[in-house]
Amino acid sequence: MSVAETIKDQIENNAILLYMKGTPRFPQCGFSSRTVEALMAFEEGFAFFNILENQDIRTELPKIANWPTFPQLWIDGELVGGCDIVCELAQSGELKEMVSAAASKEQASE
Questions:
Q1: Is residue 76 a contact partner of residue 47, using CB atoms and an 8 Å limit?
Q2: Distances from the Cα of 96 to the Cαs of 64, 70, 74, 102, 105, in angstroms?
Q3: Residues 90, 41: contact at Cβ < 8 Å?
């Protein structure tokens, strides 16, 4: 499987997916840390991928997403954005709706 196919598979098979530097317990940049905090406030599970552990995905994902930076939050196969957008959506209440809807769909399909 190519790197692009791996990325597409990850995005398709995870309703809520965060590509980040580090892990939710040990974020390795401030932007990833703030994004994780925003997501964890909703108490819904989410998948994550530590881009520091795979240089190929770290290099290829910005090309696929047309988004140059990390973290990247994907919900229902669509790129939501990075830290600033996620935090703005969290403040407005939109992120909670998006996360809840995606989590509900995922639970219903299991």
A1: no
A2: 26, 21, 14, 10, 14
A3: yes
Note the pLDDT of residue 47.
96
Residue-wise pLDDT tens digits, 50-69: 999 999 999 999 999 999 99
Q: Residues 46, 33, 75, 68: what is their CA dihedral angle, to the nearest 10 degrees? A: -140
CA distances from residue 7 to 58, 99, 103 in whole angstroms, order as listed: 10, 20, 20
Rounded to whole angstroms, how far apart are CA atoms 5 and 13? 12
